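Running this now, will post back.
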Amino acid sequence: MGERGTMDETTKAIIKYSAVIISLPWVLPFMKALFRDLAQAFEEDGGFLGDPPTEEQLREIRERKAGEPDPLVNEVLAHLRDRSGGNDRDAR
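Update: finished.
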């Protein structure tokens, strides 16, 4: 006879798969954005498995990227600068 209070393997599997299914609405948009960013990062090299682009295609890719905002923006201390009245001690 089994011990009382332990779960069998079927119950554990049901709980695991239920947790995965419940988390999909949060995980799928994240994975989609991650894949899109990676695809854009590798675009100039030909993508994940593709051949390198021709000079004309490379020029078009770079022109399109030049019109997009830079995704790497770091403004960690911007709220501190605004709170202190705009005094920037690095601007001497």
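Residues 9-83 form one domain. More later if anyone needs it.
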